[in-house]
Amino acid sequence: MNRVMVIGCPGSGKSTFSKKLAEITGLKLFHLDMIYHKADRTHITREEFDERLGEIIGMENRIIDGNYQRTLERRIAACDTVFLFDLPTEVCLAGALERVGKVRDDIPWTEETLDPGFESFIKSFREKQLPEIYGLLKKYSDRHTVIFKSREEADRYLNDMRGRI
């Protein structure tokens, strides 16, 4: 496990898991939201994002946290381990709502409310994004893939890993 990616619906617990995984493994963690977004709620250009992502993908001993569907295949092709959070929509919505008003280190601002467009994205994730994700996981079936259906499963995985180290 040297080139890791953590993907899934917003609010599922990807960033929290990624931080804990980085602490356990010592792998360098990159949050795609911190790369793409600026503190003033604008974002870098697609070209700039792709260039920065290319630099990260070329690194060994790293975790990339974030979905960013457009670059998903590129990242899966360059990783050895994939963690997918496939949690119920209600759990993801609750997770997104729970972080409103909290300072986070995986996005460069504090969300004041749950943006309606973002809420809609979460609600449609299972139908619109997951089929492509599962298709890519099938295509790259030689990657070590772990699928979590609950946060408890993710916590057990991390606890087991801590016990082995």
CA gyration radius, whole angstroms: 15 Å
Give the terminus-to-terminus CA distance.
13 Å
Shape, principal axes of CA atoms: globular
CATH class descriptor name? Alpha Beta
The chain-level mean pLDDT equals: 94
CATH architecture, by name, is: 3-Layer(aba) Sandwich
Poorly predicted sequence stretches spanning 5 or more consecutive residues: none
Task: State the helical fraction.
Answer: 40-55%
Q: What name does the CATH topology carry?
A: Rossmann fold
Question: What is the subunit organization of this protein?
Answer: single chain
Alpha-beta content class: alpha/beta
Order of helices and strands: EHEHHEHEHHHEH
Structural features:
single chain, 165 residues, alpha/beta, Rossmann fold, 5-stranded parallel beta sheet, 15% strand, globular
